[in-house]
């Protein structure tokens, strides 16, 4: 639905005499918030944080329950949501970067279409890469002195969010060998702490919760953040880590790394899809406009709570939460990856890791 | 000294936090809820914890912790009911308990087995907490000393338990474990994403099979089917001989065994990444190795209950170390636990390295809440065990349909696919035949459980080792053969040698008669067929994804070799040889009034009907026709029992906020819950 038709529809509904009485009231209803991951992941934490707040903010205070539908790296739940047409506001769906990447890479299992869904809320995170002290001593804001070192990195898989750090290190000309098959970034940090890996990255909450202590104890040296997006879509320093340079700065300082061209565009596209717009909440296609408005208003109210900043630091960090129009724009940013960028990444995945993605 | 100086005040603060009436009330509430969820096989702590999550937000931290810990702590206690009474492993923590607990129930000693198990659980939990109180302060460097080669060796040590549980024909045990390992590799490989014995056209298989389903299929279905065929009560004695006091005495007589197994539980639980699913097998193995007369293991030796049960509650305590100190969950329920802690209070407690420094009092509160929950849970369970043990005197035909109902529901919860039910049936079929032909089912399960760790740790360790060797030979050797690895190798070798000596006496399936050659031979050929198919399939993976094919090829090769030797033995030996074991030849299975296929058909019917009309309608039809036709009840009793079963199922599903498997009917028309 284009913005115009939606606005027109809203105007139409507002103009009908029913509008005043047909206010959405969810009292006594149960809203199911479906998460395509297991109970144990980051998305579960995210949804469980928002669910009670959302319940309070929705008219009629419905019970909001989080339901888990794991399988096939979240494509199973997303495929299921594609089939749903319950536009009465009793169903919402939460996707994450791990749902967006297979979509962008044309994974053969993907049978869902992001553009059909109606985004109502989006939130993001950042990421920090760090080195063991010996390599950290050679790091001078550029990766020039790191090019002749061998690095080993505990990775969850080249087609997951790890694509962003792996591609960044490759662009810097660093020789990073991923050890695949770990579950969760916490395992990666443990591998780093044991000295088996000598380079690692964590999302913001993981970094603050564990790796920052390593830095303080001198067992790790921060290298770079992935950065954050400003209003115009430019990469700027991450507000949570204003003292750590971004990959963009490091790349500019490093010989042979370009912040324009094919590789850079591809990296930036996947970074945007994976970090600043990592988690999105959707209503199913064909939802009534007044239900959409109700949800937008509810998430708006959650975001405007006085204590929101304080209670949300652990789950969403100090990053903006986008609602309504903002969420729509965020989705656009996250899913409109140019074909050349996709092709570049697919070729790189095939040549470097032997990953074949058909489609 | 400095350590104790920080620990003591924190410990007394922790007790001050715990000993508040409201905190204790929440703990008891959590325990009661945990017991209610835990007695049903296959649901376990994850279902219960996710039920609590909505209430955690902003809750007072200590109260929230009390509620959650109360629930987590009692699951490995309460799942013992299903293991001992029905032969159904309630969760991965109580798989080994089935081996001796269920035979005891069959001998009318259910109450004794239960109370021995509960006393061991209690003791294990307390030992775990006491050990942790000191250990947690020094745990960090010790946990970090366990790198990938060390974890691989522990996994191999776990696999070496097959030597003890292999049964009368050791080769069959090896082949069963190999088959379990191979079935564990089904799906997308962790390392390179190659598909093994699966295709994207059947998305279900790409995720691999769930432990819940394999556990229920291998242990529960064969036992249910066998008992149902015999149409009698579980207990051969109508009057329950030994009471709960005997169980407590049994535990006291074996208190040192209990201490040792508790320590095994804590230590293995501490190591992140192993998930504790092998702890009970290692404890069982140790129990067998340290017992002089092993002749009645597998037939109802109470030590076989005390060992694993002492270890599995202690393991929960050990699992707190990686969870709290590193923020790395030791199990699924611990992962939810971490997520929930972030929701508590103002969200300022964060698990991870800072936990000990900033929140030592909370850390100790968690450790001792766990111990306290064990005490409360155990007392409740012991009090209930005498009454619940009476279930074993009911004619099994009245119980079986409810058990089919429960395990189907539990299996569906693991992935919420209809295919979960099909997988349960298929694995159940494998279980039935493994039991019939005396192929070790524990060996199969150990293989399955360790399949993923073996593959993951070996691939990763090899990759990092080759990285070190490239730097220098010494550095590589130092990495691969660390002192811990060498100690583990020695333990493993000793364990295999001891195990093989002790194993001959263990007959996990009891005395199995032999008879004709045909059926055992056919089963062997089917197994070989699958192994060969898996080998061809793995070999087809392109070489650049070497990491995805190595383990299936090696394991498949060894399994095939074991099968070929078995085949040669079968060709040479007479029909009376143990290699031709077949339960259908004589004994209680052969004399049963009902046939195998007819009995299995009832369960198949439930699944087929679910596919058409959805679970609840299918269940209604299944219960009514089963009670009426198979059990021969009057209409009044039939309707009463069926209605009770359905009402119970609906109550449980709505309390846990779970769905039922839908069928074709539900695709076509919208129905109200629970028919939806």
TrEMBL record, chain A:
Record carries keyword Signal: yes
Domain of life: Bacteria
Cleaved signal peptide residues: 1-22
Keywords: Receptor, Signal
Listed InterPro entries: BUG (IPR005064), Bug_dom1 (IPR042100)
Coiled-coil ranges (or none): none
Family per similarity comment: Belongs to the UPF0065 (bug) family.
Name of this protein: Tripartite-type tricarboxylate transporter receptor subunit TctC
Species whose genome carries this gene: Limimaricola variabilis
Automatic annotation (TrEMBL), chain B:
Protein name per Swiss-Prot or TrEMBL: TctA family transporter
Chain ranges passing through the membrane: 26-53, 65-90, 110-139, 151-171, 208-228, 324-346, 366-389, 396-415, 479-500, 520-538, 550-571, 600-627, 639-656
InterPro entries reported for this sequence: DUF112_TM
Organism (species): Limimaricola variabilis
Keyword Cell cycle: no
Source organism, top-level taxon: Bacteria
Keywords: Membrane, Transmembrane, Transmembrane helix
Residue ranges of domain DUF112 in the record: 24-445
